[in-house]
Amino acid sequence: GAVVSQHPSWVICKSGTSVKIECRSLDFQATTMFWYRQFPKQSLMLMATSNEGSKATYEQGVEKDKFLINHASLTLSTLTVTSAHPEDSSFYICSAQPGLAVGDTGELFFGEGSRLTVL
Amino acid sequence: SQQGEEDPQALSIQEGENATMNCSYKTSINNLQWYRQNSGRGLVHLILIRSNEREKHSGRLRVTLDTSKKSSSLLITASRAADTASYFCATRDTGTASKLTFGTGTRLQVTL
Question: Which positions in chain A have a beta carbon within 8 angstroms of at least one beta carbon in chain B?
């Protein structure tokens, strides 16, 4: 199956600093990537949809200026948590979807996740 | 986004037994997918069933879909300790080009 690489897998930072998380599709081009946030023992909450070459679409309640998303190429999307605070501590997961073709069902391929701890 | 509900929230069985998880959703869907997540890891796609399908098999997995009841079930037969994980259903709505909405998940524990 297709491989999505996400890093760092874990990061600890001080309150007020910014953290960048990268999501790369290694063997396919991803026109669309998704960023999710997951709290312990809970489901995935979609934060935003990232489309190559255009602005990300954020879900209701997600601060655009807080969570900056850049999808500069067909294989790379980045999520930057700006001025991080302890409440931003969470597990962030990206997923990528190959370009949709006729009959394509749109299975998602996930990265391994990034655990952010803000002190 | 409206998440689907899954039940049970947690399930503990012994190796060799079957595990059944249920998922209910609220909208009209294009397809429904099941994913598995090991603790602290990303998600792995297990199986997809289209809205015009009623049942699908893949190895020890059997998925059913009842669009009239807006529900699906995942059956894992002859479970193994390695099946211990969280399982999520995810729906792709008819009106949304690409977004998947995940259910609340079932945590499965398979003991020896």
Answer: 1, 4, 6, 32, 34, 36, 41-44, 46, 49, 59, 91, 93, 95, 97, 100, 105-113, 115
Name which of B11, B41, B44 to mutate to probe chain A: the one with the most chain A Cβ atoms within 10 A of its Cβ: B41
Output the average pLDDT for chain B: 92
Is residue A104 predicted with pLDDT exceeding 60?
A: no
Instruction: Compute chain A's Rg from CA coordinates.
Output: 14
Q: Are the beta carbons of B40 and A110 closer than 8 angstroms?
A: no
pLDDT tier at A106, thresholds 50, 70, 90: low
Contact A51, A32 (CB under 8 A): yes
Among A10, A26, A43, the strongest candidate for a mutation testing the B interface, having the largest count of B CBs within 10 A, is A43
Q: Is A93 within 8 Å of A5 (Cβ atoms)?
A: no
Asked if B99 has any chain A CB less than 8 Å from its own CB, the reply is yes
pLDDT of residue B3: 67
Q: What is the 3-state secondary structure (H, E, C) of chain B?
A: CCCCEEECCEEEEECCCCEEEEEECCCCEEEEEEEEECCCCCEEEEEEEECCCCEEEECCEEEEEECCCCEEEEEECCCCHHHCEEEEEEEEECCCCCCEEECCCEEEEEEC
> What was the pLDDT predicted at A20?
97
Query: Is the CB of residue A94 less than 8 Å from the CB of residue A46?
Result: no
